[in-house]
Amino acid sequence: MIARTQGFGLVEIMVALAIGLVMSLALTQLFATAKSTYLSQNASATLQEDARFVLAKMVQEARGAGMFGCLGTVQDSSAGGRFTDAFNAPVQWDVGQKSLTLITTPAGADNPWHEWVVHTDCVSTAAAWSRGRAPSLAPGEIALPVQRHVYRLNERRNELTLDGQPLLSNVRAFNVLFGVADSTHEPGITRYTSQPDHSRIRSVRLTLTLFDPADRTQEQTFHVVAAIRNRLS
């Protein structure tokens, strides 16, 4: 008696291979989609983190713009009074150069770097001196450091620089608008403009557009408004 051999036929094997191939392709597509989603979300989070860091720094400095001590005005004690314009216009935006200049107080109390130092008694006198050229403090005076920072968009390299040094890459656009009041003595903002009367500035609106060089996520535009603590008149 001849025993029959048990096994799979050619058709069955081909069907099984086809099913396995389809499942493998489905799993591969699933993993590829998951990886693409992860990379997109990670790239988007990186853009948000970069924008948050830079804008937070700029907001902190913008809020302190024009704060040169206890008094409303500061005497420029440099040779020839060459810093008078800087103190009179502590926030400047060059539309053509995409350049924002801030004359402000250092962000940290222990920050040793500064452009000028203001000697004031908070009663009648406040004089600004270049770094390293200030005399000794008179009785009753305190010294307040003042910095100048320049943020500029290098459109050719898609790079935001700080004082000439690279700060942030992959920047598509950088823009600044000022919230201004109708008059010097009014606190409320009535409109935004890029070329304001400094005595009417009440806030600074900063806008950054960032992109992912690998094109894993769409461009993102971030806006933030910094209220000016001190009227710039």
Describe the structure.
- With 233 residues, the protein is an alpha+beta fold.
- Helix content is 25%, strand content 32%.
- The chain contains two helices and twelve strands.
- The protein has helices at 10-63, 84-88; strands at 75-76, 91-94, 99-104, 116-120, 126-130, 142-154, 159-162, 165-169, 171-180, 191-193, 201-210, 220-227.
- Strands 1, 2, 3, 4, 5, 6, 7 and 8 form an eight-stranded mixed beta sheet that branches. Strands 10-9-11-12 form a four-stranded antiparallel beta sheet, covered by helices on one side.
- Strand 7 (159-162) and strand 8 (165-169) form a beta hairpin.
- The longest helix has 54 residues, at 10-63.
- It starts with 9 loop residues before the first helix and ends in a 6-residue tail after the last strand.
- The mean pLDDT is 83.
Query: Can you tell me the overall shape?
Result: elongated
How far is it from the N-terminal to the C-terminal residue, by CA? 114 Å
The major β-sheet equals: 8 strands, mixed
Give me the number of helical elements. 2
In sequence order, what are the helices and strands, one letter per element?
HEHEEEEEEEEEEE
Radius of gyration from CA coordinates: 30 Å
Q: Considering DSSP H and I runs of 4 or more, what fraction of the residues is helical? A: 25-40%
Structural class: alpha+beta
Strand content: 25-35%
Regions with little confidence, pLDDT below 50 for 5+ residues = none
Average pLDDT figure: 83
How many beta-strand runs? 12
* Total tally of structural domains: 1
